[in-house]
């Protein structure tokens, strides 16, 4: 039975009447482009694929591997149908069979690469959280004691400096850096900048000098956050690729926890040799150590085969991917497919402005809106207020400094531990359901935290306990929901042909609003008091529930065709349906009432004969 990509190619090319050359010169519409990228080999016969594999090897300095690339091209068309290919030896089939039955059986070199990427994520978390403990000490020592509104704004500016750089410059630099330096080169430069900036932070004595050092740190955080997940995705087999995307968030949470550990470790370090504030200087500098480890190790990993092909370095690309696969047939299959995919992408993007199409094409615009919602809410749910300022918050609840740091470590630990269940729930419970369930909980727990500050100081232990409990419960709700969902959802929502541009935009939105949160909170805390500050973010979580309800379609386990259908539903139609579905779901799932089922919104959800929304081509 032909698959959907094959059907799409039939309709575009009309094999019997349009030549391959004519097809190659034809401009595809957006829906067709997305489906073509899902499987660009579907239109070719097995005989033609063998010929293409041999030509690929002959033309790119790999002639001695012609037979391997013939077989690799056949398998690349549909990796699940290798048992039906007589051209493969029994040894070839055994390797490919094991790939399906033992997906975590991979070469040690691949796991070494995964460990490096996980360490990079941990550095990311440390870069963000080491400032937490330092906030207890450096403001007074560098001339911005928190006794005026001006100084509170300056503290926010210093804290938010890296994210200002990321949102405005850093994330957009990742594309040219990757083009010219490669994935490893970009990671090396980003780690070097992180290392230098972390040490630099510890050598500052004025607020503006610390601001500059932390702004430069953004040139390490931004390109690294955009490159490492891409590097991991390009080097890993499809069977485990999704789990590795999730690991970025999990190990970033681990790094946030380690950042608070560093604050505890250096808390009692006394000043020496005329150095004032040695403890907070060591806290800020500690994130440079793992960055230095990344610098020394990254070039021991293979370069991304995709980047090497894009540079025309085919023998190097084959050598690279062979280090990451068990056999030559797997390496030939994946390398051939990468090359075909790059050719299709180049054809589709020729003469088009991808950034403009994010907003002018209706299907893309709805994906952009949904991605903006989840990225914006990851910041305005209030989690990074706690990640950056929990020590200050706990101090206002009458914790001692050391108690505040221990409580902050508890936040970091829970943030990491409760990110682990998301690996399982995100593909079973669903992205949208996770958000709709956790946003109300986060709102309630932030209100609980804020109201705890009304407890009289005479009941100090009760106040401390409720503040800590509220923050911990909030973290437990955040970690499986708004923690991992935004990056996973954004990567799925955009069509394949525009995904890189869409993710650059989504990442810049994330970092820009990260800066806004970090910049405004010190003044917000003083002006609104803790009760009002936590109430403010509790309100945003309630707004987040409404935004997800109205503008976020579910993307779990949908094919490309179904995703195009989902995002082609007009926004007002989707929002209107969800407003009707909300009371239905409350009655059915909360009050366990028997209610008449609603007709499904999408064609793929309904039974034959039911009236469902099936958009016309173009999805206007």
UniProtKB/TrEMBL annotation:
Membrane-crossing segments per the record: 153-173, 185-203, 209-232, 244-268, 280-301, 369-390, 402-426, 433-455, 461-481, 502-521, 533-552
GO cellular component: membrane
Gene Ontology MF terms: transmembrane transporter activity
Lineage: Eukaryota, Fungi, Dikarya, Basidiomycota, Agaricomycotina
Keywords: Membrane, Transmembrane, Transmembrane helix, Transport
Membrane topology listed for this record: Multi-pass membrane protein
InterPro entries (UniProt xref): MFS_dom, MFS_sugar_transport-like, MFS_trans_sf, Myo-inositol_Transporter, Sugar/inositol_transpt
Membrane in keyword set: yes
GO BP annotation list: myo-inositol transport; polyol transmembrane transport
Reactions it catalyzes: myo-inositol(out) + H(+)(out) = myo-inositol(in) + H(+)(in)
Keyword Transmembrane helix (UniProt): yes
Signal peptide: none
Compartments it resides in: Membrane
Family: Belongs to the major facilitator superfamily. Sugar transporter (TC 2.A.1.1) family.
Chief place of localization: membrane
Record protein name field: Major facilitator superfamily
One Pfam family per UniProt: Sugar_tr
Segments forming domain Major facilitator superfamily (MFS) profile: 113-556
